[in-house]
Amino acid sequence: MWEKFKNIHHMFHVAVVFIFFPIAGVISGDYPLLTLLWTAIFIGAYYTILLSNHKMFQQISWLILLVYIFYSSIWLNSGFVWYIFYLSNLFVYHFKEMSFKSWRFGSFLTLQPLLLISLYMKNPVDISYLSFLFFRLNDFWSSSNTAF
Predict the structure, then answer these.
(1) Rg for the chain (alpha carbons), in Å?
(2) Could you give the count of Cα atoms lying within 13 Å of 38 in the half-sphere of its Cβ?
(3) Transmembrane region positions (predicted)?
(4) What is the pLDDT of residues 89-125, one digit of tens each?
(5) What is the dihedral of CA 15, 19, 20, 26, to 10 degrees?
(6) pLDDT tens column, 55-94
(7) Exposed (0-12), middle (13-18) or buried (19+): which is 27, by Cβ within 10 Å?
(8) In the chain, % of residues over pLDDT 90
(9) Which of 49, 106, 117 is nearest to 81 (CA)?
(10) FRET partner for 11 with CA separation of 20 to 30 A, picked from 33, 50, 91, 124?
């Protein structure tokens, strides 16, 4: 297990640095304490995808990542929408799936407009802000398609 962990590309480990933000939010009192549990589950799911070869575990973990990003973005802070980069990194570099018919691609593509619509319904903002987020997320996703 430790050998598998050491063989994971460093890019996937560096991304975990951004988990600091939900932890800091709990410490500062901005987020509920339960956020730590959900964040730990998120990290566990992230590394399960990287370490496990079992399809069912990977599928459940992918869904956990989707739910965490959606929940955190809608109910905690809209800044969590940027955690989509975890999915795009996994999608492009780990799974190496470029099929537009895969369920991961469909869920990834569905999450973005679902987040934007939900954010708008919860807290109506200027439509230009939502447009900016939508195009930035798409730019980010398309830029992550290039090999590193």
Answers:
(1) 16
(2) 18
(3) 7-27, 33-50, 62-85
(4) 666 655 666 666 777 677 777 777 787 777 777 776 6
(5) 170
(6) 888 888 888 988 888 888 888 877 777 777 777 666 665 5
(7) exposed
(8) 3
(9) 117
(10) 33
Q: Which two tokens stand for residue 1?
A: 């297990």
Per 3-state DSSP, the chain is made up of helix, strand and coil in percentages (nearest 5) of 80, 0, 20
Total Cβ atoms within 10 A of residue 126: 9
One-letter identity of residue 146: T
pLDDT band at 12 (very low <50, low <70, confident <90, very high): low
Q: Which amino acid would we find at residue 59?
A: Q
* Total residues found in the chain within this entry: 148
